[in-house]
Amino acid sequence: MIKKIIFNKQVQIFWHPSHSKSLLFSLSFLLQGKPNGSHQLDKHVNMLKFNSYKEKKYNLSENSVNNSDWNIEVSNFAKSTCNPVRKLIEQMKIEPNPEYQMIALSIGDPTVFSEIGKPESVVNAIQACISEKKFDGYTPSYGTEAARQAVAKYYSRPDNLIYKFTDILLTNGCSQAIDLCITVLANRGDNIIIPKPGFSIYKTLAGTLGINVKYYSLLEENNWEIDLEELESMIDEKTRAVIVNNPSNPCGSVYSREHLLDIINLAERYKLPIIADEVYGDMVFPGNDFYYMSELSQSVPILSCNALSKRFILPGWRFGWIAIHDPKNYLSRVRAGFNDLTTRILGPNSLAQAAVVEILEKTPQSYFDSIMKILSTNAEIVYEKLKKLPGLIPRKPSGAMYMMVGLNLKCFPDIPTDLEFVQMLIREKSVFCLPANVSEPLERIILICFFFKIFECPNYIRIVITMKKEKIIEACERIEEFVLAHYKPCDNK
């Protein structure tokens, strides 16, 4: 028997109590014109997330025993944690078309199905560190001085930006760098302001700490520049930081020097530090220039987060860092807080720390140039092919490794959402892109992720452009076949 649960006029849940692994069949909510609607929805969703764990039974093996004398609960921290991108990719059970080999344009791992290989500097460096047998022990929790010196030198610009090794903290990837920055700046009940569309992990990391997120829009008609008026309107007495992602995941946009200065000036007026997610730094296509925000700031503290994962094509190494730019010494207490927080993580892998010295110093510019040539060529191929298709609006990227493609769903009467577009594309053509605005139940996705919107951008999909050229072309051809099979001429008004 299906029960209808009404929390208020905005939220209705249809639930069948016998389905412990899929607690909800559907969620309908009407939030338009109700300024407090999202807040109320979050409250009820949080209650549902926690209660749903009591309904689940996880059998880790055939020999698992349910002993009623044991009552081991999962923590609220774990309950409130969800990475919607990973959850979707790992748990979506859509069967691809067996007539086609699967082409996954979904996750930003440049090592998968790519013709981009590791440079010799990486191979030589890690082999030497293993052979020397000097780097197998513990390291300082914030990283070795040699590795931090190497990162400081890599970041510094002789004319306008000099880092010391004491400005560098080493982390397990860029995501942990961002996590530490959020954790050191904000308390439960505070808020940070993040981009929309934007990388979903910002909300994941903040949410587990009880830190609220507000969104500022990226303007698609202006090459995804930040809506500065909207950003300013989001700032209040509880705001602790603004996250800026440049170049952008998922948009592939690259901000001009002038736009970055406008962001910095806004932060200075409100005395807010900036968390700069610059993991795609220097990954720009011809005709574009990249600037670290630290290069441009004379007073605003910038916490620049980066890693070996993207530019050096080493995502699995989980080696990242925070570069603290604080020309006026506003972050003296924050630096002490960082030192304390690093004692929880105890530093990244010792071999990676030893190898990074040679990797940063000896990887030739020609290697990076070859990567960007592949990515820019792929971006051009995808853009030129998809812009000719009815109902699709590709947004040409300027850097990184992604492209956003708009969907005019009015012209696809049998495809109601971006999620359904992705699911049907997998079933029919075995091409997997990411929907940009999942906010409904997925097949076998647990309740905690039902209410996350991956990039907070309705009617878009994200395409990864790191594939080999022939695979990119084949994927575009399959997308064309799919679009032409489902497109119906429509009124675009």
Write up what this structure looks like.
The chain starts with a strand and ends in a 7-residue tail after the last helix. It is built from 15 helices and 17 strands. The chain has 493 residues and is of the alpha/beta class. The strands form 4 sheets. It has an 8-stranded mixed β-sheet, with helices on both faces. A 4-stranded antiparallel β-sheet has the order 13-14-17-16, covered by helices on one side. Strands 1-2-3 form a 3-stranded antiparallel β-sheet, with no helix packed on it. The chain is 36% helix and 16% strand. It is globular, with a radius of gyration of 23 Å.
Could you give a short description of this structure?
By secondary structure, the chain is an alpha/beta fold. It has helices at 37-55, 76-79, 84-91, 120-132, 145-155, 173-185, 201-208, 228-234, 257-269, 293-296, 332-345, 350-362, 365-386, 418-429, 469-486; strands at 3-6, 11-15, 24-29, 103-104, 168-171, 191-196, 212-219, 225-226, 239-245, 274-277, 302-307, 320-325, 392-395, 402-407, 431-432, 434-435, 460-464.
Descriptive key words:
493 residues, alpha/beta, 8-stranded mixed sheet, 4-stranded antiparallel sheet, 15 helices, 36% helix, globular
What overall form do the CA principal axes indicate? Answer: globular
Distance between the termini: 42 Å
Task: Show unreliable segments.
Answer: 1-62, 439-452
Spatial order of the strands forming the largest sheet: 5-12-11-10-9-6-7-8
Global Rg: 23 Å
Task: Estimate what percentage of residues fall within beta strands.
Answer: 15-25%
- Major sheet details: 8 strands, mixed
Helix fraction? 25-40%
Structural class: alpha/beta
How many helices? The count is: 15
Mean pLDDT equals: 83
Oligomer: single chain
Number of strands: 17
